[in-house]
């Protein structure tokens, strides 16, 4: 199966998924969207009010801001794949719970495997925790690390920067560095092929290496 067919298959499975309690209160599932050969994938938290109604990721205020941030990196929405850690809206936009994240985890894994992006940008703490458990976004935002043969770049969630405008310049600066990060990922990915994808138990283990240039 090609990447586009696999993504369509995943989306079809997400539409009918009842593996956790979130499907009960949701209107539409939000599998994610973007080209199957995207070089950059963004992973947010969960669908909100507008996403739940439209079945598309990041279409509300945070999504509008994400489009502006992408433009600062010379990118458009249609250039990148956008997904979330969980694919149904949590009630009243509460945080996704551990069992919900686990139930949706294989969908995200399969999306990543199908797209095989050079760079994954995690938006907010829930997607960050997949690769950087126990880390603080204030400490590591914008600092790419290699994992699973690709660069993982933790960034603040756009909604957090909208709520706390003092964080906006930090997020904008992180996005402005994305073209350089992608260039580096393209140059160096072969040297990192076959790396373990999971976060290491010890931060100085070789699987997840901190880059010195940033
Ligand atoms: N916030 C997210 O994390 N994801 C969306 O799709 C929308 C808002």
TrEMBL record:
Residues 31-176 form the Uracil-DNA glycosylase-like domain. NCBIfam families: UDG_fam4 (TIGR00758). Residues 186-214 are annotated as: Disordered. This is Type-4 uracil-DNA glycosylase. CDD domains: UDG-F4_TTUDGA_SPO1dp_like. Belongs to the uracil-DNA glycosylase (UDG) superfamily. Type 4 (UDGa) family. It catalyses: Hydrolyzes single-stranded DNA or mismatched double-stranded DNA and polynucleotides, releasing free uracil. It comes from Kouleothrix aurantiaca.
